[in-house]
Write a structure and sequence with these properties.
By secondary structure, the protein is of the alpha/beta class. The chain has 8 helices and 5 strands. It folds into 2 domains: 54 residues, no CATH class; 205 residues, Nucleotidyltransferase, domain 5 (2-Layer Sandwich), CATH 3.30.420.10. Strands 3-2-1-4-5 form a 5-stranded mixed sheet, sandwiched between helices.
């Protein structure tokens, strides 16, 4: 029984179910146990199946996800990113007053939903309901994409909010960075290999800039966790974006920009520590 549950899915044996249920597993065992040489299972009950699976710590009715490593150069690319974080630490610890380099952790957060309420929220009321009460119905106003980068030396967040995140929007963000730093400063970005970052339009725009002005360090495929900006996006999702209700996309944009402006009034310098000692 444990071997069957651990080797094959229900779908593999012709059932419409993708995974086993204990009821289906018991029924299959009763129908096939004799032919398989296990007549003692011909009358097995669902409860017995549950006990057998529990004894072997098997849960064939559940799925736990993992991430397949699909980048053969994962270690090399990770080392490049870690070297950049190591460079940031060295620049912070150095005696130079103003390093002539900006290191930006960049990514996009697409599909931020502008959702509006159809009825007013009801405030908490003592001894009645402890939380805000909200009507189940809502109205969709569309989505926005946040393009953002953290300056790892100062903690300043550069951002723009667009309807899309194509090459033209990415180039617009690069122009924003170009205007934010002195003309002789080198701007280094840590980012993923999204199509907008490596498109012909992006490469052509970079080629028109002074030599050494912009350089990209790409995270490996499925290695977005190596990018510090993901921590900011996670914090946003848990704070400002969670349960947010707006009357329009314009209001959503204004509230996100207000949140980022508040962060920039007292910027936090983000530090990477995982495996940084291994960076050459």
């Amino acid at each position: 029984m444990a071997g069957l549950a651990g080797r094959q899915k229900a779908h593999d044996l012709g059932y419409p179910h993708e995974l086993w249920t204990t009821r289906l597993l018991a029924r299959h065992a009763r129908g096939h146990a004799g032919a398989a040489g296990h007549p003692c299972l011909s009358n097995i009950a669902q409860g017995t199946v549950c006990k057998i699976l529990a004894r072997h710590d098997l849960k064939p009715h559940k799925v736990r996800y993992y991430l397949e490593r699909r980048d053969e150069a994962f270690e090399e690319k990770m080392a490049e990113v870690l070297c950049v974080y190591r460079e940031v630490e060295m620049l912070r610890d150095g005696n130079a007053a103003e390093p002539n380099v900006a290191i930006i952790s960049y990514d996009e957060k697409p599909g931020i939903q502008a959702i509006g309420s159809t009825a007013p929220d009801l405030p908490p009321k003592p001894e009645a309901h402890a939380t805000f009460a909200r009507d189940h119905e809502y109205k969709r106003h569309g989505t926005l994409s946040l393009l953002a980068g953290i300056d790892l030396l100062t903690g300043h967040v550069h951002a723009c909010i667009e309807d899309h995140h194509r090459s033209r929007e990415f180039i617009g963000f690069l122009k924003q960075l170009d205007a934010a730093y002195p003309a002789d400063a080198a701007i280094k970005l840590i980012l993923d290999n999204h199509s907008a970052h490596i498109s012909k339009a992006t490469k052509a725009w970079i080629a028109d800039q002074p030599e050494g002005r912009f350089s990209f360090v790409f995270t490996p495929k499925h290695g977005s966790w190596l990018n510090l900006i993901e921590g900011l996006f996670s914090k946003m999702a848990r704070s400002i974006l969670r349960q947010i209700r707006v009357a329009s996309k314009a209001e959503l944009k204004a509230r996100i920009l207000a949140y980022l402006g508040d962060l920039n009034r007292d910027p936090i310098i983000h530090r990477w520590t995982y495996k940084i000692a291994e960076a050459a």
